[in-house]
Write a structure and sequence with these properties.
transport; transmembrane; transmembrane helix; membrane
């Protein structure tokens, strides 16, 4: 597969079109929405950090095992993982191209998925099974 080379003249011309417009719009909206949810959940995260300061393991399990704290925190972890994946995509687009970009994005997606599943799974386990 041959890569398309985009010249500086093409980029400078306001009438030229390159890239995938729907995918870029979806990426932009996803990044803004997940960022907004992260800001909204910041209060919950601060509450958890302050409430657990100086507490022992049993207090931590009791607080995170509460469905009103644990489930929103699990949702926050999943939303933050999506936000992290999109942010790293921006970095990879700047520094990688072709097959190396595809490999980097695959590894990035896998890493974010593993982090989200492990952390959210641990919280869901605490909520439902103690």
């Amino acid at each position: 597969m041959r890569e398309t080379v985009i010249s500086q003249a093409t980029i400078a011309n306001p009438k030229s079109h390159y890239g995938n417009a729907p995918a870029s719009t979806r990426h932009f909206i996803t990044q803004r929405v997940t960022g907004g949810f992260n800001v909204l959940f910041l209060g919950l995260l601060l509450y958890v950090v302050v409430a657990l300061a100086g507490q022992d393991r049993s207090d931590m399990v009791a607080l995170l095992g509460n469905a009103f704290v644990g489930l929103p925190l699990a949702a926050l972890i999943c939303i933050a993982a999506v936000h992290m994946r999109n942010g790293m995509r921006d970095v990879f687009e700047d520094y990688f191209a072709g097959r190396m970009y595809s490999l980097a994005m695959m590894l990035n997606t896998l890493f974010c998925l593993i982090v989200a599943l492990a952390a959210a799974g641990a919280l869901v386990k605490l909520v439902f099974w103690g």
